[in-house]
Amino acid sequence: MSLKSGNILVGQSGGPTAVINASLAAIIKEAGQRLPESRILGMRWGIEGFLRGGIVDLSGQSAATIENLHRTPSSALGSCRYKLQDDDLPLVFYLLENLNIRYILLIGGNDTMDTIHRIETHASSRGYDLIGIGVPKTVDNDLYGTDHTPGFGSAARYVALSTLEAGILARDMQRVDQFVIHQTVGREAGWLAAASALAKTTPDSAPHIILMPEVPVNRSALLAEVKRVYQEYGYVYVVCGEGIVDEDGNPISSSVTKDKFSNIEFGAMGGGSAALCLHQLIANEFGWRGEFQVTESLIMCGADRVSELDLEEAIGCGQAAVTLASKNKSGVMVSMVRTSTQPYQITFDAVPLKEAAIRAKPMPRDMISKNGMYVTRRYLEYAAPLVGPLPEYASLDTGITPVSHLTKAI
Length: 410
Hints:
Number of helices: 13
Oligomer: single chain
CATH class of the largest domain: Alpha Beta
Strand content: 15-25%
Strand order of the largest sheet: 3-2-1-4-5-12-13
């Protein structure tokens, strides 16, 4: 059965990325060509807004606006973190039927894939023909079923650039601040924290230690490594994911709450982030002065640090979603399959929504060093093409050598 006379509903959910709007723009443009009989409607404030009647007519947006949307950060339609309830499904179905929506494309992460899977399943149980497609998005890079996610490359570039530049600052300010703690987002997966390793250019340059949620932190081992690095280089630069835990599985962060999906939120309500707790641990142990940096949502909206490959792939995922919809494929998420790393190549495919829903994909253990405090070459080879080339900065030869004529003058 052809559904081409039905309307298309598009939504964005969860945390934004620097390229999520590129996927949205691609969907709008591609749908206008492949499904010209369909109106394109947008959820205002995600599924939560949709339940309250929040609908935007995207078909009427100007071509210039859609074009500029490609490089606009954050979520243009507005986002939410609302957990769809079973009691909501009858209202969702009523709205879909009333608006003659036959295609629903949601751009998001794990929880978004669960939302669209439940809507598509409920519609099917009611005998309503609905095409449900998930479009991947998350800076955490923790979605199953895809090599990586749009948004990760740009966020990883943000982390790498921040580490490169802040690392130079830390090196040059080591007589003032002996250590730095740099925290990235990542509840259960260390993909983003690990990206800081791409900034390292010499053995003494930052980062020196990377702590990822996949490997519990042994405080004694960490302090021993901090001491070793300081003795060798004169300063210590530590990068950590927000969700790092101790050996008992307890968050290093001293303040933990949960969102509506039961996802842990760290350092909320004014409490101590992992970075602050590590800062206190090291300062108390060695009596040093140090800094901590918590970038939080800046990673998600740094349009000035976009990875061009990430932007291109976000567009490709939007286009692939519409292609799947036009072929009446349903219950799937667009995926990217890496066919080669050198040279880098991918193809677009699709995986069942249930494979991507809810669960978080951790970093493979062979991408993490044996001591659990750095990454391996395999990770660097995986992430480098996604981040793109980084700038090269000058480094003076600062070895102190006697200058005889000045010494005599003194």
